[in-house]
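[INFO] parsing input record for Pantoate--beta-alanine ligase
[DEBUG] input buffer:
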Amino acid sequence: MRVLRTVHEVRALRNDLQRNRNSAPRVAVVMTMGALHEGHESLINAAKSSGTFTFVTIFVNPLQFAAGEDLDRYPRTEQADLARCEKLGVDAVFAPLHSAELYPRGSAEQTVIDVPAGRPSQHPRSEAAFRPTFFLGVATVVCKLLHIVQPDDAWFGAKDAQQCCVVRQMVQDLNMTVSIRIGPTCREPSGLAMSSRNKYLTDAEQATAAVVYRALSAGQALWTEYRKRRLQQRQPLTYGALWEAATAALDVLKAESAVCVQYIGLSDAEEWRDLGGGYPLEPQPPDLQADTLLPQTLLVAILSTAVIVGSARLIDNIALSIYEENAPVTGTASSEALASGMHPSTVTKVPRS
Ligand SMILES: Nc1ncnc2c1ncn2[C@@H]1O[C@H](COP(=O)(O)OP(=O)(O)OP(=O)(O)O)[C@@H](O)[C@H]1O
Ligand SMILES: CC(C)(CO)[C@@H](O)C(=O)[O-]
Ligand code: BAL
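[DEBUG] output buffer:
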């Protein structure tokens, strides 16, 4: 396994791979911030089957952390990460030693990929409302890493479903040719979504945090039962029933006093449009009432949440099948839905003030 520290080294390796065009391998990348766990492993294994040459990038990207977030204490476990990659048969790891390798001008002077504030993805019950500059940082570093590694496939996890939407839209808007592939969320036996930030939790807090998946599953079960009944009766589906599913999930979260809910929201999987309901309740999309019928074009809704447990902020989501034929049990159906979005335009800004 090659461990590359500089953009120059990655470019040299990429040129070597490309030298013989007739036998150039398919290249896949898994981008990470390190502190690797089985969720990352599942993406690496998927990438290995989609590409014959697999890159992993390890970079804690300062641009996606706002002031006061956990940049300084984000877990850094490089030796263990490299050993894990080696064991999995990764071909090359790009792990810059300093952020100046990617931001030589400093991150404040960096040309950035802006995700427009007006787009539907920026709704009040979503990541963008709580981390307003997060997607600018993610889109920028993902764009840079795609240009540096030049993969055929780039793999992302459905746990970060909104990130998947933002990356997919950027790739479409900027006419990039890479294929964005999405792997399902890996969970602990308790249902807790694996996450590097779980390291911030004590054992007791990890047990408490399992309520997040129980809550999402309760919302999904309520919805699935309603949907089955209505479709058997050949009745249409309403927004109100979807909102009840979000409320059911919220009630489970609220019953756990050690969990603080930042938001719980319903979004479509392609553009992350606000489907109403959820928490905080205001503002709601003005054109939606409880008895408004869900459009036949809505195949999957994503019920997503962010909560604080102990000193960790955790996110998770679950797919609710709307008019899709086979009801999803895991995130995989949402992955397919994420694969097909139309979207407003992404612009590139130079430079950031
Ligand atoms: N449980 C998981 N299952 C599948 N993919 C995952 C999981 N957790 C993270 N990923 C994916 O791995 C990639 C790298 O994520 P990252 O390094 O931020 O890890 P993370 O566990 O999400 O960390 P954080 O605690 O910061 O959320 C992303 O595409 C992310 O969606
Ligand atoms: C995609 C990513 C590696 C960009 O820093 C990060 O947001 C992550 O790990 O999900
Ligand atoms: N996996 C998302 C990275 C972040 O929260 O910064």
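[INFO] Residues 196-329 form a domain with the Pantoate--beta-alanine Ligase; Chain: A,domain 2 fold (CATH 3.30.1300.10).
[INFO] shutting down worker
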